[in-house]
Write a structure and sequence with these properties.
By secondary structure, the protein is α/β, with parallel strands linked by helices. It has helices at residues 3-14, 16-19, 56-74, 129-137, 155-159, 166-181, 197-208, 225-232, 234-241, 255-263, 290-303, 327-330, 348-365, and strands at 79-86, 93-100, 110-116, 141-145, 185-195, 215-219, 277-282, 308-313.
Length: 374
Amino acid sequence: MRSRTRAQFGVFVGIAAMSLLAIVPIAGQQTAPPPTAPVQQTPPAGARQGGQGPNFEAALARQVQTDATWRKASDGVMKMTKTTYKSRKDGLEIPVFVFEPLKLRGPKGHPAIVWVHPDIRGHVYEYYIPYVREAVSRGYVVVAPEYRGSVGYGQAFYDAIDYGGAEVDDVLTAVDFIKSTMPHVDPARIGIIGWSHGGMITLLSITREPTTFKTAVAMVPVTNLFQRLSYKNPVRYHQMIDPANRIGGLPGDNADINANYKERSAIYQIDKLQIPLLVHITRNDADVNIEEAQQLVDALKARKSNLAETKIYDNPQGGHLFDRQCPAMTDRNSDPSDLASYTPTNTTEQRDSWARVWAFLDYSLDPYRDAGGK
């Protein structure tokens, strides 16, 4: 193991006590009691019940409410901007949230994090509010793209889904956007973090362009599409991830289709890794099952132990959502505009995971340093 990784581990241990404060509850709120029935998956915003398909009008209305909640959470704490950029893939307009400190440093004064939301049909969920606020308070600029297929932006955007394909280009374009519009961001200090499906996009981003980012974090990431389809029912899951048949069919149909799945499966791209990577998975994950997730951990330990830090949590509350647990996830009657709904549950595993995440990112990206001012 290289001395760099030893140093990272030393940072984890050395600041452990201080890092327990990394998950900051919304000001004036008390820590929520542990929920009694953790929910494994977050339903798509505006989804209809009973398999009737998406309700686009409801999703659009939900997105308006989400944007308003993010603005409310940003008021007096950070600057929030909602804009768009054109994907390098085909010029598709990609909505993007930008969160910045209220007082900006000069040129190259801040590092940035590209924040990749989860779910095949997800968006930038409000449960990230405490963590984005924490990132900005540390000196980061956070850029959170709503890549193609995300809900809340109409049917055409929803139908443009390209699982493991153009959506990765959408996220990589966030770096172009940062470099062309944010002189206060140091282009040498850009990291990326993603969860679940967003974790898969994170892994594909850093292996397709191994030197674009300085560091990366992939939380409970989708790893192996061959394994995943076999566990989730191949026909049903293929229809979910590839309704327009952009991948070409099911694994095993022909060699070209197999090659497409292999290209979109991070487990086959490990040898391309060139930057520090942190991965957290759980044994009780009912979405990215341990049988899939363990493959990534084992491959990183075997072939990239000099770059990768991994952690397996045994049975954390919330399973797949353990690091993001909050009342809004377990109480369907909670008010989505109430910031208290997104107060972290602060379980031991949740605190430990975020302490490691902040230590890992801070070590590589050094958010407290003004690179422009030297």
